[in-house]
């Protein structure tokens, strides 16, 4: 899967049509959200920069002669005894340079994402998906039968979150098949097909548990929401 995957107007229309078709047989309401990313992870960059500064101080403590000799060569100073104040000043300078250098490197988002632990990315995606669900689907239907399909490109992760009426009847692990079907297509570069595959499988599950009533009406938008 690649963050550079994009959706054309025709792709968006296909996803919306798939949602409409899936909802034709169920009282459930499917919401699809496509996010470029779920977090900027600047706190992770800050943590790595702080660690780099700390490690620099540890290295100076373990190998003081190496660092102080290097400082003398760079500045052209004669070998000398180091006063405590000057020694601490050099240590602070080295730590600050390491911190700043690491922070600047991690301003490049792909590197920042690569250095973000998988569990952290997973938690951030879930939190963003949950927030989107609460805004866009939770308890917004008459029978509380809304369900969110959320895809976050930067993290290469997806979530399916169901409203309480669905969650009471359908175990959460059932949605794993829909997620797998979606990710297979997306890894092949077919993002619209992946979303459609997930919508179709979710629609089949909903139709089995929540068949469409004669007076059912469309309560949530069928279009793909991009954030």
Describe this structure in words.
The chain has helices spanning 9-23, 42-62, 64-75, 84-105, 109-114, 118-136, 164-169, 176-187, 191-209; strands at residues 29-35, 146-152, 157-162, 225-226. It is α/β, with parallel strands linked by helices. The chain has two domains: 9-39 and 118-226, Diaminopimelate Epimerase, Chain A, domain 1, CATH 3.10.310.50; 42-114, no CATH class. Strand 2 (146-152) and strand 3 (157-162) form a beta hairpin. It comes from Novosphingobium piscinae. InterPro entries: TPM_dom (IPR007621). The chain crosses the membrane at residues 45-67, 87-108. Residues 143-204 form the TPM domain.
Assess the beta-strand content as a share of residues.
Answer: 5-15%
Per CATH, the class of the largest domain reads: Alpha Beta
Question: Uncertain spans, ≥5 residues at pLDDT below 50?
Answer: none
CATH-level-2 architecture of the largest domain: Roll
Could you give the order of strands across the largest sheet?
3-2-1-4
Order of helices and strands: HEHHHHHEEHHHE
Give a count of the beta strands, DSSP E runs of length 2 or more.
Answer: 4
Q: Roughly how many Å apart are the termini? A: 18 Å
Determine the mean pLDDT. 86
Total domain count: 2
Shape: elongated
How many helical elements?
9
Largest sheet: 4 strands, mixed
User: What Rg is obtained from the alpha carbons, in whole angstroms?
Assistant: 26 Å
Category by helix and strand content: alpha/beta
CATH topology of the largest domain: Diaminopimelate Epimerase, Chain A, domain 1
Amount of helix: 55-70%
